[in-house]
Amino acid sequence: MQEWLKKYFELLSMPEKLRNCGVLGMNARNYFVISKHNKRSLYPLVDDKVQTKKLANSIDINTPHMIGVIEHQYEVKNLLQIVAGHDEFVIKPAHGSQGKGVLVIKHYENNEFVTTSGKKLTFNDVYQHISNLLSGLYSLGGQYDVALIEELVHFSDVFKSFSYQGIPDVRLIIYKGFPIMSMTRLATKESDGRANLHQGAVGVGLSMNSGKAVQAVLHNVPITHHPDTGVDLMTLQVPFWREHLMIGAQAYEMTGLGYLGADIVLDKERGPMMLELNARPGLAVQIANGRGLKEAIKNVDKYYPRGLTAEQRVDFVLNNHF
After folding, report:
1. What is the pLDDT of residues 296-316, one digit of tens each?
2. Which residue has the higher pLDDT, 21 or 319?
3. pTM for the complete prediction?
4. Would you tell me how many other CB atoms lie within 10 Å of the CB of residue 268?
5. What is the separation of C-alpha 299 from the centre of its chain, rounded to a whole number of angstroms?
6. What domains are there in the chain, each with its CATH number?
7. Got the DSSP string for 184-233?
8. What average pLDDT does this structure show over 80-107?
């Protein structure tokens, strides 16, 4: 059989293979999970990062401190006054997704801003970035947006050789209040220091019982070592794992969403901190773990107890293997 014809038949059989592996596709996620367990009236609680942060702080979920908010174009000129006393900070769209529009400033002096990758920006560069952000360039649906300015996270030294320049994070998938699947996303040179798989970051699937690495992928292809640092990714274990899971479990009670994603970072001083929540989390976590979400969801429906507190749900996840 010619090689191209062989590949053609392999592609035709791919959907069936994925179904047999329990992979949750986008249509199934949207129709049978999200629409069933996430009321649309609750979406603003997670789609607006400012609202999410205030809500999290009201129930003592740890988040990066908010420095300020820019809501209107005429306020952009006040940036230096807003960040006065803060040598480093992050600017992000309140309604952004997939890391788009996030600008990380590591240092600024005499109207010169330096990013984590060492790129130098003028005040006009940053001014234009915020103006584009406010106009909705990076927001969901292109709607007018708000610029959120918050403190820069200093990630734990435990990740020092596992990530290239940028801050790694942990993505948790929460179903009915139970963390059911997770991965850590590690920045690379290709991803420009961003922990975003679509931009070339590494995804490492994590054991729900321990936070230990189970598999790693780059552009959906399995790997064992970080492409830039060379570290063995299978030696990674996320510390304070229970605290990570607690943030995810509390996010369920905070929002009322039955299916959501929680992005968490580990600060060297303040410990695990919630960055943001997502009512429509992506499905790449399945690739990072080498297994599908369907089985995990079915296990919760069939075997997991009801009426537990957030702490009890986390303990159940830590002490049971499915």
Report:
1. 999 999 999 999 999 999 999
2. 319
3. 0.89
4. 13
5. 24
6. 21-46+156-319 (3.30.470.20), 65-150 (3.30.1490)
7. EEE--TTTTT---GGGT-EEEEE-TTT-BEEEEEETTEEESB-TTT--BG
8. 91
